[in-house]
Amino acid sequence: MSDPLHDDRGNRDRSITNPAGQGAPLPGHRGRARPAPGGPFLIGDAMTGGYGRGADILHGCTIAVDRGEIAVIVGPNGAGKSTAMKAVFGMLSLREGAVRLDGEDISALSPQDRVKKGMGFVPQTSNIFTSLSVEENLEMGAFIRDDDIRETMEQVFDLFPILREKRRQPAGELSGGQRQQVAVGRALMTKPKVLMLDEPTAGVSPIVMDELFDRIIEVARSGLPVLMVEQNARQALEIADKGYVLVQGRNAHTGTGRDLLADPDVRRSFLGG
Ligand SMILES: Nc1ncnc2c1ncn2[C@@H]1O[C@H](COP(=O)(O)OP(=O)(O)OP(=O)(O)O)[C@@H](O)[C@H]1O
Questions:
Q1: From the CA of 233, how far away is ligand 1's center (Å)?
Q2: Cα 172 to ligand 1 centroid, rounded to whole Å
Q3: pLDDT tens, 102-113?
């Protein structure tokens, strides 16, 4: 049992405490997880709202992530998972509820201003520029910065070594899993304080999914909280410190990943028994 990432059943260790000396600090690194002084680090609190003038999609829905955590949002198709993420990122206006980042109410800010406040958001689709090279995509990711971005780019290449190898290739020529790495890397280029991922493993093979999850764990271990939506509920809950099951825009179940995986109700309704 010398591999720190696996337990004796071959499962990944879900704790995200940074083992001493392991790995270089990642973009947004803030050291070891500290307890939150006033509520979660990022919270979309009791959010109610929908798109434009349409009917409400979210009904008092709450999602949050704390420092040092991976929080995962799961639920059936159309449950409002992506909508909840978009609401936290400021892409739809809420009729009720609030979004707070590090204790500050940011509900009135535009998505771009939320990026400046430290949100890194990777949307589900159209999350890279296919005609630009990998390196150019990463440079575009740093658009809000006017300091030297080389160190951050090196950190992204350390996290995703294949991107260093393919840095001059058009991103559109990469495999699905590699494109997702570009998308996550782009978000990391802003040196965010929290990373939000909408279905980072959409359309990739189980092996690639596992690898992406490993990298996401590594990001979280570096001290950067990760809030993500996932279709692969069981696998995602296995790496989640906190899980939210949404149904029809409402919180149906909330708990640690482990608790939700063990909950007979959750198992029956969402995990196929
Ligand atoms: N841009 C939009 N304009 C209007 N309605 C939308 C828009 N995007 C999503 N919806 C509606 O909001 C509801 C929730 O969709 P959403 O994409 O948030 O669900 P989801 O849980 O992420 O589902 P999936 O797993 O299928 O992606 C659906 O009824 C959908 O039709």
A1: 18
A2: 26
A3: 999 999 999 999
